[in-house]
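User: Um, what's this?
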Amino acid sequence: MSQAITNKDIHALMIDLDDKDIKVRQHARQALTAIGPPAIPQLINALHDPRDQIRWQSALILGHIGDGAAAPDLVKSLEDKALEVRWRAAESLADLECQGLAPLLRTLIQHPESPWLREGAHHALRIMMVKSDLGELIKPVLKAFDAIEPTITIPIAAATALQKLNQRDAHNM
């Protein structure tokens, strides 16, 4: 995309995400994805839009952009009132792979009592397990979801995985 893209241009594309014509919506998604990081602030704001479809599309685009700056907001969207938004946010977190894993693990440590968070996190982690090289970190966390008291086991497993992830990242620097 051209460097001449302005916030006004991004805003116009955001409006097009709600167009009745599927081709207009598709063009807007593709254009916002191509714009990349400059579109992230408006896409993050749209995660709070009252319309489910706008939140869903914003989560989709954020995953396609692939910038970890969106990860904390995608984690918050795992508790969205709409199932399809929660599911899309989980898939977008999985698209972020390592950039999405640390914020997800931190939230699981802090708020394991949320069933919607656990459901979305489980979905994201299963995808990450297949798509990335993070399987050895993720496997014990997924196993913790199956325990009798997941609100106790998940934070422990998530903390251990986060510690290993941080050590791995420090070693790779």
The chain has a mean pLDDT of 95. The chain has ten helices and no strands. The CA atoms of residues 34 and 165 lie 30 Å apart. The radius of gyration is 17 Å.
